[in-house]
Amino acid sequence: MSPLVRGLVLLAVGSILIDGVVGATVTATESDSGAVSGRGNRAGTNLSDDVADTSYVEHAGWVGVYHTAPPDAVADGHGTSAYNAGKWGIVAPVNAPDDGGFKFRDDVTFLCQGLNQKGAGPPPGGINAVYGMLIAASEGGIFSNPNDTDTYNPLPMLTRGPDRKFIPGSAGPLGPGGLLQGAARWSKLAQSDCAVVAGVVIDDFWSNYDHGVPPAPPPPPGTPCPECPADHRYRYGNGAAGYYCCPWVASDHCVAPPHTPAVPPCCLLPGTSSGCQSIARCGTNAANHTMCGGGTGGSKLSFDQLSDIKAALSGKRVYPNGTVDHTSLSLTPWLKLFVVTYNGDIAALAEQPLIQNEVVDGISFWISGPSQDADNAQLATLIKQVRANLPLNFPVFAGGYLTYSSIGWMQPEPFYSVLNTSIDLYDSNEIQGFYVFAGTVLSDSNSTLKGSRSHMNATEWKRWDIGNRLAAVTAPYLGTVDVLVVDEASVPLYGVVGTVVYNGSTHVTRKVTSEAPCVIHPAACFSFGGWTGKATARNHTIALSKRGYANLTVAIKVVADAQTPLTLAMTKLPDPIQHL
């Protein structure tokens, strides 16, 4: 059975270190301090001992899934959900109407509400962090689409025809999903229903970025923002090719929807290298004022467009036409913008303006799928090459493929080589997370979710042995901390923001206390899954903040395979002096 650390109550104004916390061993699944998870259990299932032949990780951590692992069952014969099969602490759901058949609204509810408090679902600590996955032009997205503003109903991507070219109008009458609006969407979710949102990641980034376009100077103060004419309201383009206006939502060309007469675009601002490309001017920007925001679309993203995306993610105001007000207040400044970077993209990081100007905040690094079998042993070397181009403590995630579109199912051992190396890299603070590609393939072929990706049948499940393999290498170093926040009179405090960091710089989670109960604590609590440290025990730092109360910071060592209840008391600040 798991050890349970008896509740600790702390009242402080400054910082406290709880070092080497240990607790009594209990022999029941319940105690006077709360519930305890036994190893090998499958939350949400009723299994007898004669079929419990697979061990599973019982605590969330830093290993997660790229694309959601749904609540549908895997092919282990026990009805274990794809989520419970790994207790994935980090999840990157796609910013689209569904992820492998799992509807976006249901996905957000599952990740952010159903699992955010321990009593509502597995694992014990809930999800640690969610990073929304944004899709660029190479996969059918566009930079900006003013129609893509429904928080819980993202627009779809363009789809390809038999010739592998995108079919105009295939995303529907409102056009394809926009990266700009996607960033704004995840900012809104972080402000309301999903405190665990930690940022976004742009998929296949460097093939979608225009390296040759330098940062454009901002327009002088008071300069009017160029506007498209009313009959060509959708803007697209970039600084090199020029900015244009189209009657319809456009990516890199103004293409009429099916059965609609073609109408040529107009040129809003000549490009630095291509002028207006013989396209007539719109007549609304004769003085050639530069853009206040990026264009609507374009197969290659510019520096300015990335700056707009970052601003939207930070919670700055995005106007209905897609213009971003960079002078407005940042409502979610803690959210990070990650970009997918493959081993062939490392050179792009050298003296990269996006990093130097703090537009990009993190790297999601992958050995490309076709190279995983041959190059898996090189991960540590490649991560060193990545870090050589980055500031100190810059967040880097690694990842490994179970399946790849042009290959199908990968070989297990190269994947586990990447995972095992990543464990040592996380332990030494070289990476801050790990993605398994992809969560959507874990549920079996009988899943009720009928997405476009393949599913792991019983043969593949046995071949990969995910439960036992993952439990063997990560479970011995994972534990859960349940944090109850009260005031000086031991009254529960709601609306307290708790931010957890591991080993001084690695973001673990950001959660908010609410009236939803945890298992150990009745309310005003939050839980997180943490890493004890493999080679050396490392601290987690818990920082609490609430308006009207003194900030509180506590350092604690997570106990392996345990649920540690911790009560923290915040001190109310004196009321402000009223000057008459």
Topology:
Layout: E1 8-12, E2 15-18, E3 30-31, E4 34-35, E5 63-66, E6 90-92, E7 98-99, E8 102-103, H1 104-114, E9 129-134, H2 179-191, E10 197-202, E11 234-238, E12 242-246, E13 266-269, H3 303-313, E14 336-342, H4 353-356, E15 362-366, H5 372-375, H6 379-387, E16 396-401, E17 403-404, E18 408-409, H7 412-427, E19 433-437, H8 458-464, H9 466-474, E20 478-486, E21 497-502, E22 506-512, E23 525-531, E24 540-545, E25 552-556, E26 563-570
Parallel strand pairs: 1-26, 2-25, 5-6, 5-19, 6-9, 9-10, 10-14, 14-15, 15-16, 16-19, 20-26
Antiparallel strand pairs: 3-4, 7-8, 11-12, 12-13, 17-18, 20-23, 21-22, 21-24, 24-25
Helix pairs in contact: 2-3
Provide a descriptive summary of the structure in words.
- This protein is an alpha/beta fold and 580 residues long.
- The chain is built from 9 helices and 26 strands.
- The chain has an 8-stranded parallel barrel. A 5-stranded mixed β-sheet has the order 2-25-24-21-22, with no helix packed on it. It has a 4-stranded mixed β-sheet with strand order 1-26-20-23, with no helix packed on it.
- Strand 7 and strand 8 form a beta hairpin.
- The radius of gyration is 25 Å and the shape is globular.
- Helix 2 packs parallel to helix 3.
- The termini are far apart.
